[in-house]
Amino acid sequence: MNAALGRRRGFTLVEVLIALVLLSLLMLVLTSALRSMGQVEARVEQRIEAADDFRLATQLLGEVLGQASARRHLVQAAGGPAQAPFFEAGPEALAWIGVMPARFGLGGRHYLRLALEPGEGGARLVLRYAPWNGAPAFSAWGQAEARVLAWPVSALALRYLEPASGQWSPQWPPPGLTTNALPPSLLPAAIELRLDGPAPAWPPLVVALRANYATDPSAVLGGFGGGAPR
C-alpha cells in the first residue's frame, strides 16, 4: 500500500521551483537571442538604406555637377571679366546653372545650389533647384525646391581645379588669377566635395566638369571623314 502511494507521489515544491527557474532562464535566453536578431536585422536594413541613399546622392551630384552652363552674362564684379557664367563657387556652397536629370523627376535647365542647411538632428547637405527663366542670376533659394542628400553633416568642403596649373582652390575663380589665365569657358575643370558626419562615411567625391556644349564658347564641332573641324 505504501509502495503504491510512493509511486503516485507528484513533484515536490523544490523540484517545481527548480523547473520554473530553468524555464525562466531558457525564456530569458530565447528572448535575448530574438531581440539581438531583430537589432541585427534593423542595423542591416539601415546600412542597406544608407548605402542606397549614398549611391543615389552621389549619382545625382555627379550628373548635376558634371555639366554646367557656360552661357555668359553681364556681371558687376570689380577686376573680373565683363561677362561670365552664373557660377558662384566658395568653400562651403556652390550655385550654378545646370541640367536637372529627368529621371529624378525633373528635366531641363535649372538654377542649382549645393550647401549645408540647418535641420532637425543636425545640418543637412541640400540641393536646391528652380527652373531657369533666362535671368543671369538667382537668389530666392528659400523658395526653391529642396532635396536632402545627406544628414547629419558636420562639415562640407568644396574645391575647384584650375586646369592650366593643376592646382585646387577653395573658391572660383582662384584669388590672384587673371581673366586671361582662366579656361575659355571660365569654369573649373573639376569639383571636389568632402563631407564629414554622415554614416556610412562619404569618400571624397571628384567630378569632372564639362561645360554644356550649346553654351560653351570654346566648343568646336568636329568634321566628318577625317576633315578638319569647321
- How much of the sequence lies in strands comes to 25-35%
N-to-C order of helices and strands:
HHEEEEEEEEEEEEE
Give the overall shape: elongated
Oligomeric state as shown: single chain
Largest sheet: 5 strands, antiparallel
What do you see in this structure?
A hairpin with a 3-residue loop joins strand 4 (87-89) and strand 5. The protein has helices at 2-7, 13-66; strands at 67-68, 73-74, 83-84, 87-89, 93-99, 109-117, 123-131, 145-153, 155-162, 167-169, 190-196, 205-208, 210-211. The protein is elongated, with a radius of gyration of 31 Å. The chain has 230 residues and is an alpha+beta fold. The termini are far apart. The longest helix is centred in the N-terminal third of the chain and has 54 residues, at 13-66. The strands form four sheets. Strands 4-5-6-7-8 form a five-stranded antiparallel beta sheet, covered by helices on one side. It has one domain (47-215). It contains two helices and 13 strands; from the N terminus they run ααβββββββββββββ. The protein is 26% helix and 29% strand.
